[in-house]
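Field reference: sequence -> structure
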Amino acid sequence: MKKMKAAVLTEYGKITWMETDLPEIKDNEVLVKVSYAGICGTDQHIFSGEFHPRTHVPFIPGHEFAGTIVETGRAVKNYKAGDRVVVDPIIWCGHCPACLIGHYPACTSLKLIGVDMDGGFGEYINVPGTMLYRVPEGISDIHSALVEILSIGFHASRRANVKKDDTIVIWGAGKVGQSILQAVRTKTSNSVFIVDILEERLSRAVNVYPDIHIINAVKDNPVEKIKSITGSKGVDIAFEAVGHYVDLPGIVNPVRGCVQSIRGAGVVCVLGLGNDPVPVLMKELIWKEGIIMTSRVSHGEFAETIENMRKGTLKPDALVSDILHPSEAQKAFLMLENEPSSHLKILLEFR
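Structure field:
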């Protein structure tokens, strides 16, 4: 059996750069040589064991990655060796109630490459040809590896139906929050607020989009500041991308903050995957006849993300704080855990 190197989660809390079997492809699959892979918030939860027993160790994580095809199965017709591609990691069942109406992100048995099976933290990976998107010339390998996370931002924007001239607030300036920021900025030029407790993340956002309003919830009450700037009206759409939040004296939790900050008939879209119940006073939403919805992964928005990258309407470099060799994967996860204010998106470079 041929071998390759991979960053393997050998036990929860420990990733080892080690030799493993090179995948063999089926007729409908391609073998991709990985160029870059990103560490996602989900990967951090997997690393700490929060996804047990869904994830079983040892296995190779990584669901945000890009690379070049080196081999194709006999049944693959639309791709060839040498094509640069990104991989949509989502696998749906096709027969549950959600799948039957075409709402694949809500599949009752949804699986992801790099979560439920080996992923992209290895030198090579085998994937079905149906899960690929071709990367045009002019888009770098580094930017290609960010298509998945940015597509989550575009999917959330689509779920919330962001329109021209909508006003927006995003609770959370982490990887997902900043991806939503980039997506909504391709759709509206009106006021956008972003809320966090880490000044470094807010600075990263405003450095790229100097026209946005940043709110440090440690220093200011976000709802009061939003109401002040919008003339007590509130915003059209509020996104919650915090998940695990920090209790702050006199400040409501992020989901309730979203509810309080929207205008009448506004929309709240929740993405944060916290483990604890989040208190919401429903009458605050009912009085506004507001809509509260959720957004999970993506649903074909890879094409929209790639097209925006091609046109130059995104700023993917703003997401990347560090690029490390995959042999330093353990170090990378500890950096994200111990120094969240200093690191945002860490890419592993396999080239």
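Note: The mean pLDDT is 97.
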